[in-house]
Amino acid sequence: MHQLISEPTHIMGDSKSCIDVIFTDQPNLFFETGVHPSLHAQCHHHIIYGKLSIRNITPPPYRRRVWYYDSADVLAIRKSIQMFRWRENIGGLMCPNQQVEILTETLLNVFSNYIPNKIITVKPWQAPWITKPIKNFIRKMNRAYKSFDRRGRPIDKQEAINSMISQGSKLIEDAKDMFFKNIGVKLSKPETGIKTYWSLINNLLNKAKIPIIPPLLDNDIFILDFTAKAEIFNEYFIQQCTTIDTGSTIPQDTIPCAPPLTEFTISDEKILTIIRSLNSNKAHGWDDISIRMIQICDDALLLPLKLIFENCLRYGIFPEMWKKANVVPVHKKNLKN
After folding, report:
1. Which of 145, 147, 293, 301 could form a cystine bridge with 297, CB 3.0-4.6 A?
2. Domain regions of the chain by residue span
3. pTM recorded for the entire structure
């Protein structure tokens, strides 16, 4: 614990006593401390104060692609993948990394042609019932109000502005009611999963929280910037994988290493069983190919995956693209720093 202030807070004549102090285990949050004089002339008790430097930074808006899987042309997707000349394009490549890059690029191209999709801008702080028509109306209303205010708020335009504001409020309320009504319908369905159930309950109770990564304390400095936090995490994990030079030497291995794999068999049935047993509710990876997409392809992916797996075993190389992941730090219980 760090004591920040020990100024006298009680003055009687020439005597001074310290009866109020501030204790904290995070002194860097305070950028100013001190003692205010009494607010009343007859009261000799001074006011101790501390100003906190806390900024509630929300995540910036980001763009993401939304896929409408229910409207996907499954037969066209599988036919396109099966017609692609996989042996000519990736069969002769020795590097699994190049094979995976071609596979990813080809699949995303096929999906974009046969699965309806669009790119949306996600604002984490915005309520889920604020739809695009409501956003457009809010922008229109704001422009009208700015013009009304710039012209000195004429009386003859007051009624029109009030009517527009009332209309906007009604649109938002109706959208909010419909949103919670749909939640009630989903909650009543027996097939609703437990995770989806509690997510809907939290929305219904207005317990949805903005996913803010807490500040990180690095060298007695609180880091709030998201990029800086990511760099700190990267440097930390790199250090965990760095060999410590102790000056010692590794003894010669007297047992010869096992020879590389020369003969192996990868069955189509095993690959297909794994594809069909994947959980489609899991989030997609770094390459933007979701499990739902993989399962839509089904047996059309057997040939390219088999070629890549054989190459990985033959040369002992795991593709770099499949090593990457989207990582979100989550604090463990009772460990907030």
Report:
1. 301
2. 2-52, 62-122+213-244+258-315, 132-204
3. 0.59
